[in-house]
Write a structure and sequence with these properties.
Strand content: under 5%
CATH architecture of the largest domain: Orthogonal Bundle
Distance between the termini: 62 Å
Number of domains: 2
Shape: elongated
Number of helices: 9
CATH topology of the largest domain: Tetracycline Repressor, domain 2
């Protein structure tokens, strides 16, 4: 039997969207077939099963988000301005027509973490890496005297992550752009105080 040829990244990104739209349990093999263009046999051959596809999709999501994060924080702009742009991106993503697809990690964490130890470990590792990356930005902002250092980079990163969780969750029921921008601005101002 020869292996099917397909664009793995495109398939994994399509699977991400399917899982984010319906959740893992409600996403059928037919949904995955429609989203990815792969027949169930090809999915089983390439990923073993639906869970294997989810694990691979989580890996792709992690890589995509890390690249996106790097994009926001690779310029010579002040770190706080970069952070503000990143926060604005989170808001735009949260209020977009794809708000239900804003964060595969949070969706999977809420649905699967207590049922699957391996998925839980992957999700926690991804979220910890994100918090560490945010913490590094706050360390740089403190070192550049953009922040007073009254609160540690770790405290600021925890507060920022909590705020982003809150923004994404709030947008599910209140996706009004003006409210979301106001909340993000309040979060940013409090981080800078």
């Amino acid at each position: 039997m020869r292996n099917a040829e397909f664009d793995k990244e495109a398939v994994l990104r399509a699977a991400m969207i399917a899982f984010m739209a319906k959740g893992y349990a409600k996403t059928s093999m037919q949904d995955l077939k429609a989203a990815t263009g792969l027949h169930p046999g090809s999915i089983y051959c390439a990923f073993e099963n639906k869970r294997g596809l989810l694990l691979a999709a989580l890996g792709q999501y992690r890589a995509d988000r890390a690249e996106e994060f790097q994009h926001f924080f690779s310029s010579d702009l002040p770190k706080l301005l970069q952070l503000k742009h990143y926060l604005e991106h989170v808001v735009q993503e949260s209020i977009s027509c794809q708000a239900a697809q804003a964060c595969l990690l949070i969706k999977a964490l809420n649905e699967l973490a207590e049922q699957d130890d391996e998925v839980q470990a992957i999700l926690i590792e991804n979220l910890s890496d994100w918090q560490s990356s945010v913490g590094a930005v706050f360390h740089q902002a403190i070192a550049a005297n953009e922040l007073t250092g009254e609160r540690s980079a770790e405290q600021l990163s925890r507060f920022f992550i909590m705020g982003v969780y809150g923004l994404r969750t709030y947008a599910q029921t209140h996706p009004e752009a003006d409210i979301m921008h106001e909340l993000a601005e309040q979060l940013f101002v409090d981080l800078c105080r």
